């Protein structure tokens, strides 16, 4: 089968023939991949940054966001059947630790990640454990299904609290940030403000329902947000950028007693005045990783199936698998939302 592989240390991927993983252990499933989307994590692996050098052990099939059809099931599989259209939670839980045993598999202490700790999904077929599979109902397109994993990140980040009638700030208009804007509007937010530097992403945020998009280079974000909220600041702040200045701006913009949801990953330790920005303001902070299994997936499914959120603007590129380099280039230039690869 064809696969996009991190063949050796250094910049780049290679498309090559690799064996089909046909041998299934108990509770494993073989899925024929139909669509797969490129993630920021894949860019890190492609560029071979410090994180990738520590985590990835080439040769390894890349990718973790996908949808496909079940074509074979191993012994003991009961939740899916041959012919089912599925997506997968990419965080594979051990099912043994305290977190897994108490309904928090998304923060498993010993999890593996598709395309990071084991072969990924940029291939004709992928072998995955049954526990991570989620059936896709009719009415959700393959392109939308292939990005349900990052959409789930946005759902998890946005819906940690009731947004009805609340003013919301999102720092960072990458794909997950703009999906979070659409989710916030669907959930009843009064006003959604987004901050972003890149022109392409500013436009994407507007298409996905942001009421106001601010460029921190052009305005004082704190003053402008306070002006837009009658001097109060926002009730809810979602940090999606992993940028320290954006994080500080967001905390300054959050009203006393407000809530903060953190998904953006910072490059290392950060320095903030936690006393004045968090403690004395009485803020509640939520650290977000992955998606709740499977509460988040159920919400994401219903939002898409019932057309409460339209992801059409986010899927900016649909390419043949062989054209993966075009997708990587567009993402590196900041001129893409989600890039979906047609694997079949």
From TrEMBL:
> What are the residue boundaries of the Enoyl reductase (ER) domain, all occurrences included?
10-341
A molecular function annotated in GO for this UniProt entry is: zinc ion binding
Please give the start and end residues of each transmembrane region.
Answer: none
Q: EC no.? A: 1.1.1.103
SUPFAM superfamilies with a match to the protein in the record: GroES-like, NAD(P)-binding Rossmann-fold domains
Describe the family membership recorded for this protein in Swiss-Prot or TrEMBL: Belongs to the zinc-containing alcohol dehydrogenase family.
GO biological process assignments = L-threonine catabolic process
- Its domain of life? Bacteria
DNA-binding as a keyword of this entry, yes or no, is no
Read off the PANTHER family from this record: L-THREONINE 3-DEHYDROGENASE
Kindly name one Pfam family recorded for this protein: ADH_zinc_N
Cofactors named for this entry:
Zn(2+)
Record carries keyword Translocase: no
Q: Which InterPro entries match?
A: ADH-like_C, ADH-like_N, ADH_Zn_CS, ER, GroES-like_sf, L-Threonine_3-DHase, NAD(P)-bd_dom_sf, Zn_alcohol_dh
* Key words of the record: Cytoplasm, Metal-binding, NAD, Oxidoreductase, Zinc
- From the Swiss-Prot or TrEMBL record, give the protein name: L-threonine 3-dehydrogenase
């Amino acid at each position: 089968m064809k696969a996009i592989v991190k063949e050796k240390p250094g910049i780049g991927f290679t498309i090559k023939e690799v064996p089909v993983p046909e041998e299934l252990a108990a509770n494993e499933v073989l899925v024929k991949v139909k669509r797969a989307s490129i993630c920021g994590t894949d860019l890190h692996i492609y560029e071979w940054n410090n994180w990738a050098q520590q985590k990835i052990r080439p040769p390894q099939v890349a990718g973790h966001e996908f949808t496909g059809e079940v074509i074979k099931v191993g012994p003991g599989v009961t939740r899916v059947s041959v012919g089912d259209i599925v997506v997968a939670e990419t965080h594979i839980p051990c099912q043994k630790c305290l977190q897994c045993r108490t309904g928090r598999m998304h923060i498993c202490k010993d999890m593996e990640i598709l395309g990071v700790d084991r072969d990924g999904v940029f291939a004709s077929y992928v072998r995955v454990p049954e526990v991570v599979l989620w059936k896709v109902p009719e009415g959700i397109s393959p392109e939308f299904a292939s990005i349900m994993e990052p959409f789930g990140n946005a759902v998890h980040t946005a819906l940690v609290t009731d947004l009805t009638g609340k003013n919301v700030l999102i720092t960072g208009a990458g794909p997950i940030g703009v999906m979070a804007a659409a989710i916030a509007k669907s959930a009843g937010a009064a006003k959604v403000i987004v901050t972003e530097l890149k022109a392409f992403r500013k436009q994407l945020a507007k298409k996905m329902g942001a009421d106001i998009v601010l460029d921190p280079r052009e305005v004082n974000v704190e003053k402008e947000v306070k002006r837009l909220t009658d001097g109060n600041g926002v009730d809810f702040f979602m940090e999606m950028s992993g940028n320290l200045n954006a994080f500080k701006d967001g905390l300054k913009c959050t009203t006393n007693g407000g809530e903060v949801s953190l998904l953006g990953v910072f490059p290392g330790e950060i320095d903030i005045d936690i006393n004045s920005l968090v403690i004395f303001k009485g803020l509640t902070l939520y650290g977000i990783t992955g998606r709740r299994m499977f509460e988040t997936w159920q919400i994401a499914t219903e939002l898409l199936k019932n057309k409460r959120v339209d992801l059409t603007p986010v899927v900016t590129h649909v390419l043949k698998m062989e054209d993966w380099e075009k997708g990587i280039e567009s993402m590196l230039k900041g001129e893409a939302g989600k890039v979906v690869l047609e694997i079949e």
